[in-house]
Amino acid sequence: MDKHYFTVGMAGHIDHGKTSLTKALTNVDTDRLKEEKERQISIELGFAPLELGDNISASVIDVPGHERFIRQMIAGVAGIDLVILVVAADEGVMPQTKEHLDILSFLGIKKGIVAVSKIDKVDEEFVDLVEEEIKEQLQGTVFADSPIILVDSLKSIGIDQLRAKIKEELEQLEMRNASGAFRLPIDQVFTVKGQGTVVRGTVYEGTVIEGQTLMILPSREETKARQLQVHHKPAEKAVAGQRVAINLSNITKDQIERGDVLVDKEHFVVTNTIDISLSFVQSLKHPIKQRTPIKLHLGTSEVMGKIIFFDRNEATGASGEVLCQLRLDEDVVTKRGDRFILRRPTPTETIGGGWVLDPHGQKYRFGEETIQMLHNKKEGTPTQRVIDILKEKKYLPKKELLQLTSLKEEQLEELKQDSDDLIEMMQGFTLQSEKDSLLQKANEQLKGYQEKYPLRFGMSKAELVAVLSHQVPKEWVTTVIDEGLQNNLLQKQSQFVATMDYEPSYPPSWKKRIESLMSSIQQDGLNVKTWEEYGNASGIPKDVLEELKHYLKTTNKLYFLDEKNAITRENLEMAIKKLRAATENTFDLKVAKDSLDLSRKYLIPLMELFDALEITRREEQNRVWVRDTIE
Fold first, then answer.
1. Does the keyword section mention Nucleotide-binding (predicted)?
2. CB of 461 within 8 A of CB of 495?
């Protein structure tokens, strides 16, 4: 049977016996700092292993209970699966206990056990009253129906019962995802002499292996997992739910800090603007106004920022769920679904919490339209999230799509199998409907261009791609155009792209004049006037003449003897036929002049054109026939 790993949090008011209970369960004293020993309170997070049989292993986190150490408390519980709420029998539920309950609720922790500690401090007949009082205080919280265990940590009363209940509750939980991208929010950073920088944290998801290349976010510093330890024991790997210490290579202690995140892939978003679903504590003392400064606790990070409402100017504890946005002073690392806590920096209080709808928040207008958009984000299925983001972005590399949708790779693969619209392309994803739409736009763009420039062979591919790449990836547009050409949905000649049914033609408004111009050149045979003279005589505008010249030259309807003079294909073929009939395999200029009755003004350029077309080949003063037709 595969072993499952979980994290159990020990929470509660200061001096209610969390550390003693942790020691009774695990035989580990989590008060490790000298200051903690002297003051007999937990300042930093304490960790201890708890083995619960062959298939379950847990890390117990003893989180500080004092109000001044609330950041450490939040950093500890943010990654836990099960909470043990410790309530001293002689004091009952205290204000700090209630704040912890709010925090646990906002972080989405559903499983809990209430451990009534210090039962030796009250009479036996008083214990029932204590239980009733605790149940009453816990009504309406995530702990309302939690089992209650009476314990005396020093005398080991109820410890075995509590351990058994922990195992029973954990067996009902799904293990965290160990197959996805690795993510470790860092809550401790220190240096070990001779080893270098070490970080600790609870693996939120994925797996880390000794020797693996990792990245520190948000700084994007690269490093390697030189060595791993799980509860002070060397390990080759650590998986989701486990507490791990990682010795990092090529990183100094001042390059990393609590709140940073260690990852193995860039599936996670670094951002300072997040769309959120937010709920407030019922006992909120002061209304939260538009742009109120807040302190965000997300994972192990603590960042200042402000709250942005789109449907109100203030909120209270009775406001219910509010869809809004946080704009932060520093970057954080997050993805959709991550839980967070908000606290007011002054006066200090927990004001609420919730979850991340979209880590890629943008600036939106105040009003119902934005609220509806945020509601769609909240309610959207994984399929709808993928479709919505690809309708906006058209194409995304796989990594970016995973970031924006907060999906796991296996989820994306399942969606691809189940959807006729979602397709893989260029090591990323797009929608077939968006490809079809782009090809339609390409055809519309080309038709407009072809109507405007009927003498051209179409639009240059580079220009077409540039026009269609407005706010969408150029590489995607290029690939879709290429596929359209391969599938005969578009046609291409040289660097020009056109619709499949298109052929260049004379502009209707100038057709008669162009035909007259061509007739004049044809009638003049080989003794032609300049192109400019024909143009001036035709009355055709200069810009149309330039287009026409390029068209006639490209289609070989005209052959230019030089920059000024051109003859028709028919007259060129007639000259070749006439000269071939009058000469042997070799001839010179005199023979050509007599045969064609041409002055040197036209003869020399014509012979050079013959050479260029490989009709003839010049050998000293003579020319040798190579062939007698134009290819």
1. yes
2. yes
Alpha helices in 511-631, H assignment, sequence order = 511-523, 531-538, 542-554, 569-582, 589-596, 600-612
Q: How many residues does the chain have?
A: 631
Q: Are 90 and 38 in contact (CB under 8 A)?
A: no
Final residue in a domain of this structure, among 242, 263, 284: 263
479-520 per-position pLDDT tens digit: 999 999 999 999 998 899 999 999 998 998 999 999 999 999
Report how many domains make up the chain: 5
Task: Determine the Cα–Cα distance for residues 34 and 591; give it in Å rounded to an integer.
Answer: 113
Residue type, 90: D
- Tell me: do 247 and 232 sit in the same domain: yes
CA atoms within 13 A on the CB side of 160: 2
> In this structure, how many other beta carbons lie within 10 angstroms of the beta carbon of residue 487?
9
Q: Are residues 525 and 476 in the same domain?
A: no
pLDDT tens-digit map of 194-252: 888 999 888 888 889 999 999 999 999 999 999 998 877 888 998 887 888 899 999 99
Q: In this structure, is the dihedral angle defined by the CA atoms of residues 267, 272, 275 and 277, taken in order, positive or negative?
A: positive
Q: DSSP state, 381?
A: -
Same domain assignment for residues 39 and 157: yes
What CATH code is carried by the domain that includes residue 332?
Answer: 2.40.30.10
DSSP result, 130-161? HHHHHHHHHTTSTTTT--EEE-BTTTTBTHHH
pLDDT in tens, 261-318: 999 876 778 899 999 999 998 888 888 999 999 999 898 888 999 999 999 999 988 8
pLDDT at 350 over 90: no
In a domain, 311, yes or no: yes
Only one residue has tokens 């071939």, namely: 580
Hey, how many other C-beta atoms are within 10 angstroms of the C-beta on 523?
10
Residue range(s) defining the domain that contains residue 234: 183-263
pTM value is: 0.67
